[in-house]
Amino acid sequence: MIEKSANQDILARYEADPIAADRETFGRESDPNTRRGFLRNAGLSTMAMVLGGPIVFANEMPAGMIPALLLGGDEEALAKLGKDKGLTILNDKPWNIETPAHLLDDEVTPAARMFVRNNGVIPAEFDVANWTLTIDGESVERKVSFSLNDLKTKFPHHTYRLVLECGGNGRAEFDPPAQGNQWTVGAVQCAEWTGVRLRDLLEKAGIKKNAVYIGYYGSDTHLSGDPDKVVISRGVPIRKALEDETLVAFAMNGKDIPAAHGHPLRLVIGGWPASVSGKWLKRISVRNKVHDGPKMTGDSYKVPLIPVEPGETVPEDKLRIIESMPVRSVITYPKSGAMLKPGQKLNVRGHAWAGDLHVKEMHVSIDFGTTWTKAILQAPHNRLAWQRWTVELELPATGYYEVWARATDSAGVMQPMVVPGWNPKGYLNNACHRIAVRMKG
Ligand SMILES: Nc1nc2c(c(=O)[nH]1)N[C@H]1C(S)=C(S)[C@@H](COP(=O)(O)O)O[C@H]1N2
Ligand SMILES: [Mo]
After folding, report:
1. Exposure check for the chain: N or C terminus, fewer CB within 10 A?
2. By the 8 A CB rule, do 392 and 346 touch?
3. What gap in Å lies between CA 144 and CA 163, rounded to an integer?
4. CA of 79 to the centre of ligand 1 (A)
5. Is 277 in the pocket of ligand 1 (CB under 6 A)?
6. Who's near 83: CB < 8 A, 6+ residues apart?
């Protein structure tokens, strides 16, 4: 019999910090790259107790491998993170979870259906009572700190629905493939965030004339376990930081922000790669130059200035930082593969968004892009929120169809029907989303 509480405890420890849990359980006094030789110690008996018997071939077990008994199925892991069982786990160290298109149908994305993109480990605990946000940097008149209570009580509250889309959404379609999470279409969400304007906080610190950029710092831990190593620290030019919709948020969808999404405080910046929306927010630096934290430099979140050959190596000075995200849409109903009865109308709907712009028109095609039908498109709930579109179609005969969806932004730019410009890190694939629909007699 497995001791349930011990099992849960070990699971919780592995979830919070797999590397530390592994070290705690097995010890690490011999070769750091293999467990060979130290399973004699106390770690072995602890693990044997949890597993209900000794690991017979313990000496052959690779380092860092969690015994399969301790791994739930995807559903179990998803449930523990408060996620809908239909989501797709792309990686569990760190957690990266994608939402299938048909689960993005809600107007406001519920927490259970929000994709998760972590670069490091979710903080193990949150000292909410003593949580502070510090504003500092070369370009502030004075360094200031706020408690959560200060933020909630001393500044006006604002609520916006904001599209947060990972810069790598759609990466899975690039050829040759780009390294990183193989997102398809579901690394996007539009939740409702409540907080204070970053602008109001920056004004308290006093923004110097030479301010160029802001950079955030969160409290997640680096995968290496090194407490001094920053996981990710990105930011935006000061003009974007000062926009009305740029929030330091303490609530999401009317509740506390969930652990995976930045509890208890998060920077939220709609329309730009979601990597600029720093989770578990502790500090914002106002910089006198383009922020240079981890994942701002090198080739992170950058695309070639001019088109390149697929597979080409692009030098850093030929890359630009991604700012506003390109126009895109997703079909959220029906689910791909839907089966209709003869004569049944096909109702299709989804969302469309366009970075800092808005979506002007939405079209769908059932003949591989030969002809297009205009969809009904709603105005956004607020600037930088996605827009609902709906359309009713008639299928001329029984058989197999594909529905393609194409949005046009307020500057007249349309989504491409095929994968756009290849780039080394696989960003900004905004090709039309397509689903399969069948009609059978
Ligand atoms: N502190 C911190 N903030 C972060 C990240 C992170 O790993 N650590 N990931 C970023 C990236 S790359 C994305 S796409 C979004 C994902 O937000 P979500 O997990 O709430 O969907 O958070 C961003 N903010
Ligand atoms: Mo991302």
Report:
1. N
2. yes
3. 29
4. 20
5. yes
6. 97, 112, 113, 116
- Domains of the chain by start residue, with CATH: 4-72 (no CATH), 128-321 (3.90.420.10), 328-439 (2.60.40.650)
State the pLDDT at residue 35.
Answer: 40
pLDDT in tens, 140-170: 999 999 999 999 999 999 999 999 999 999 9
Pairing status of strand 266-268 against strand 247-252: antiparallel
Q: Which ligand 1 atom is the nearest neighbour of the CA of 280?
A: 1
Report whether 155 contacts 196 (CB < 8 A): yes
Mutate to test the pocket of ligand 1, among 103, 117, 284 (most ligand atoms within 8 A of CB): 117
Partnered with residue 162 across adjacent β-strands are: 191
Structure confidence by residue, pLDDT tens digits, 183-237:
999 999 999 999 999 999 999 999 999 999 999 999 999 999 898 999 999 999 9
Report the residue among 116, 118, 122, 169 best suited for mutation to probe ligand 1: largest number of ligand atoms under 8 A from its CB.
118
The reported pTM is 0.85
